Amino acid sequence: MQENVPHADRGETGGETIPHWHDPGSEAMTVVEGEGATVYDDEGNAYLDLISQLYCTNAGHSNEAITDAMTAQMERIPYVSSAKGNDVRDALAADLADIAPGSLSEVYFSVSGSEANESAAQIARTVQDAPKVLTRWQSYHGGTAGAGSLTGDPSTRSTMGRYAATTGSGKFLPPLPTAFDADSPEDLAEQAADHVEFVIQNEGADSVAAILMEPIGGTSGGYPAPPGYFERLREICDEYDVLLIADEVITGFGRCGDWFGIDTEGVEPDMITFAKGVTSAYAPLAGVIAADWIGETVREEGYDLGQTFAGHPVACAAGRAAIEEYDSHLIDDARALTPVLESRLEELANAHDVIETVRGRGFLRSVVFADPETGDPFVHPWAGGDDEENPVAAVREAAADRGALFGNGRPDVQILIAPPLCTTRDELERGVDALDAAIGEVFE
In whole angstroms, what is the distance from residue 21 CA to residue 363 CA? Predict the structure, then answer.
């Protein structure tokens, strides 16, 4: 344990912030301005923000409709207790119920995606009277204690569990080719779904409240499930009386080509968790959209948990304006440009043998790298390679030097692309060109 040092002897402090996901070996960029799909650093350099900061500024930066709505709400009343009613909060709940699939109509607000997932887990355990929520390995559901235990990413889970662990979670394999020996996508879907059923049986079906999954992998790599997987998963959940929760923190609000990622699978979950894009990240807001019977059960039995800033009126005003922007043109605009992004990334894969695959849906894509001679990652941080120089990280740095920002996947064997929905064709083309040149610089 570190020895206590008197405050007066600790020296002067600079009042510096500690960035999230802090790496002492690198310096975080300072972003001071943004417009559309472009951000500017403190030295005036412009960057195409092809990761929407943290997969969240879906409407782009400085959208006047959203900022105007927030200003108007602040001038009317800036805050109302989350235990009380509020007109803009109720109106946003109605908007969310309108765009959510099927019978999902009951909204419980929170502040962040981590807290939304924890809330969904708590609600599921309450209405099901069962302790366990199952999630898949190689997933990300948040960085708080409860959400960290749900996360399958070992870097997050191990960090959260280093000093204290939580209970009530279990894991199953993701529907990825590397996890199963399948001959076709359909075979993969069958094997992966059968595996989930096996896990439910061996956990004890009566002890399992819910399955929580991203419809399309988020930071784990933008991967969609093979055809038929979610249909079979829905059947399994119904058979064993297990709730299906779609984590839409990243995949919601047009990111994958529809209002929610699960819409692209044609399956109705029992709950959806949301955050990030609901306000285009203009203010923190998150929550759960639940089936009507779940909301009615919670309302009848009462709920003794809450958060001060959940459903903040200014954030709700931002959410209403953002949804209107998505509905009026942004989702359609991004859907129209998706084939351009797909084809350019396929061209990129054909041009560089270090690219193992490109995958994704809508404006959520991953470029996965591997040694063409062995098929293995150049560096796998989860398999003891975290101290090695990672060429994939070098590609991102080289792309940033060319004015394009991309994301790192979990594990960091891939580059993620998640542009704002307002990104133009020219901006997409320039971004992929920058990535192309960066790959050439690092690998060739």
Answer: 24
